[in-house]
Amino acid sequence: MAAYAGFLKRPVSPTGVWSWLTTVDHKRIGLLYGVTALIMFFIAGIEAVIMRLQLSSSEQTLVSPEIYNQLFTMHGTTMVFMVIMPMGAAFFNYLIPLMIGARDVAFPRLNAFSFWMFLFGTLLMHASFLTMSAPAMGWFAYAPLTSLEFSPASGVDYWVLGLQVLGIASMAAAFNFVVTIINLRAPGLTLMRMPVFVWMTLIISFLLIFAFPVITIALTLLQFDRWVGTHFYNAAAGADPLLWQHLFWVFGHPEVYILILPAMGIVSDILPTFTRKPLFGYPAVVFAGVSIAFMGFGVWSHHMFTTGMGAWANGVFSFATMLIAIPTGIKVFNWLGTLWGGAIQFKTPLLFSIGFISMFTLGGLSGVMHAVVPVDTQQQDTYFIVAHFHYVLFGGSLFGLMAGIYYWFPKMSGRMLNEGIGKLNFWLMFIGFNMTFFPMHIVGALGMPRRIYTYGADQGWDSINMFMTIGSLVIVASFLAFMVNVIRSLQSGERAGDNPWGAATIEWSISSPPPHYNFLEIPTVTSRYPLWEEGHSKGAAQIHGHDDDDGHAVHMPDPSYWPLVLSAGIAMLAGGLLIWKWHQILGFTVISTFGLLALYATYRWAFEPVNEPNHEEPHQ
Amino acid sequence: MAHVQSIEEQTSTGLNNRKLLMWAFLGSDCMFFGALISTFLVYRGRSGSSILEFHESHDAIKDAIGISAGGVSLILILLGIVAFAFTLMAVRRGIVKRIIPAVLVLFAIVVIFQSIWIAGHQPEFTAHECTEMGGLVLPGGESCEVTLAENLLDIPLTSLSTFVLLMSSLSMVMALSALERNNLPSFRTWLTATCILGVVFLGFQVFEFNAFLQEGLTPRENLFGSTFYVLTGLHGAHVTLGVLWLSSLVVASFKGKVTQKSVLDVEIAGLYWHFVDIVWIVIFSVIYLIGAYGIG
Description:
The structure holds 2 protein chains of 2 kinds. Chain A folds into 2 domains: 1-21 and 557-620, no CATH class; 25-556, Cytochrome C Oxidase, Chain A (Up-down Bundle), CATH 1.20.210. Chain A is 63% helix and 0% strand. Chain A contains 16 helices and no strands. Chain A has helices at 17-21, 26-55, 65-100, 108-126, 155-183, 196-227, 243-275, 282-296, 311-339, 348-371, 373-379, 383-413, 419-446, 462-492, 562-582, 584-606. In chain A, α7 (243-275) packs antiparallel against α8, α7 runs parallel beside α9 (311-339) and α10 (348-371) runs parallel beside α13 (419-446). In chain B, 70% of the residues lie in helices and 5% in strands. By secondary structure, chain B is mainly α. Chain B is flat. In chain B, the strands form 2 sheets. Chain B has a 3-stranded antiparallel β-sheet with strand order 1-5-4. In chain B, a hairpin with a 5-residue loop joins β4 (136-137) and β5 (143-146). Chain B has a domain at 18-48 and 149-296: Up-down Bundle (Four Helix Bundle (Hemerythrin (Met), subunit A)), CATH 1.20.120.
């Protein structure tokens, strides 16, 4: 293979910048995902606070209507595609191999590729701020509003191409995790012994595989409309004005479950640890997740009740939507059943989990309200809807993900987060969240429309909006508490040890942070809660992979340049399309150059061995 | 391709990781084409009409060299078949220095053939054709108001290209089977044949696109144009990717990188190739057969 090494030698360094740029280690990729998602969370949070300040009183002039449109569009897009999804991905990447007893994912380089695509997609979309025309059409970008005629500015182009690149990232990760979970389980780890988080990841991966191609097509058609001049969304040429809405929501509703199921998995794994009893009705929780995913493909039109689809379509989709409440309710009752009679320890992860269960239930209930067509007709495009989806996405997904961070941070960093600050973080977030979003139900019912940059003083919404703005500042305080906690802990946190919580699943049997090869010896799993079995004292299974052994016997995949180069090539194809609109020859040059680069990287990747035969293992 | 394996000594299910990945990808690709085909079906019969000028037939080739474009094309097709046979023979015997010229000649023939039809040949468009296409001769008798849609489709021609693509699936099967028997020359020959048949299919597609453009159907003309070009074009992109993949395997096999150990690599590429063929059967039925015969 030496003859094939070309101008780039295989990267070998275990430390430094290059080791991160070329890493194929699922734990490092997980951390990269997590840190990027937190940065994006910070940016989306700033956008939200600016919006809240603008709305704090009537006739505010803090931002212009144009800027306001850009703020809510980018806030929504960022939170969905660049915060909650990648934060879920951070947990999949870091935890799945540890939870199933594998040394890495099935395709380590594909995993690295997925992260770089995600990062470049994020950068591409945010580059639109530099042109002073960020996307301003709402996160679901209804065509024909997004057609060239109504949105001539380049913001939509950045949005479309950024989302295409992010889509490639998600799909690559989803293929990888389907194969990893189906094929790389440790001996004895049957499907029905897997931690619920692993189950939910498997379900989400299938959702991504089947839902993302639909948005890819919707976006591709929009690209053709905007670049070539086709008529897919041009009603004047006979096109269906609802085509985009259908394609978007066929993707968009499964996407909602892609956002919430990781949190459900995290909470289902945290509750047993802090109640000291197995999850109540494990098979019911798993199958409820599977049926939510199946039904999730058959309810998309409940986002479109007011578009005049007709009574039959409305009736069927209304019924299907209410049906989803059943598996969701099963999960909620199983979580309550797990808490019931448990030896509960109110540690921060459990507080966030209980926050998740209660807030998600509220969001779910308002969701059932929207399933009723006449009610939905009243609530469409009001703040009531904003309240609903923040209860499921913030109160649900984000509380669940926060629970996950507090729970697994010790495993990832080797240090505990401070309990006192953690509780402060939780209560600030819980109170701030409810102050901000509960009153939105009320103003929504009073008729305040969403996506307006201001409102008249005569509406009488001033004081309640001021209250909500104060609430959003409390959320900011809670985020600051979280940052302080993380920084303090990384500098001087208490050492975690292998299994600080006395948890039962196998990721807690290895050292914290885990060695790069995870398990020195692949464990054999005999039950759902192997570390709670007889003969395993708390934090047992010490034989599996410890630092005192140097792990020389374990062959791990070598780092590689090609995932980074290939994703840069593909991202710049998108960049070339943007340049094309401004200067065709330059755009063509960029597209062909980076197309060739991507092709070259693909070949190098395909012919690159997993391990270079002639050099030492990079890690010690 | 022998080294792309990841951690795959044993798997929980016994299924190979990469093969499972390919199946998952194909499942995903079903949704990709499903969304496109649905869009095509939703937009059937919604296209607006165009106004076309009548004109005489014109054959620049005949003007230049005295032989009609059709005659030159026939000669080129025969030459192409000869070049096809030469390529396969060179591949079979493993004479690398003959393969490259043969492929180049084949490629040149395809390009010249296409150029002659694009530049040299322009079919006539008269009041008779106008009414045959269901159009309306406008007052003055100079032009025709007609909806350019399924009435443009040439079923016999596309049946032929469909046959070519299906035969490429057959040769793909033969290639894999030859590799399993460790018969490398036979493997290369069949795989090269698969690639060439794929290219010929793409040639038919370029030919058809050009014919439609000459008749006035662009992607911007109407909804049929938009949906037709994007759906068949994205399928063509899949075929192009497949040709690149398979021809890389041929090249790699001459470099000794594809051997009997790589049966799985070839099988996975074959899965993709067969899938692309099957999708074409659906597209052919939906656009051509259902469309041209006015079913549904």
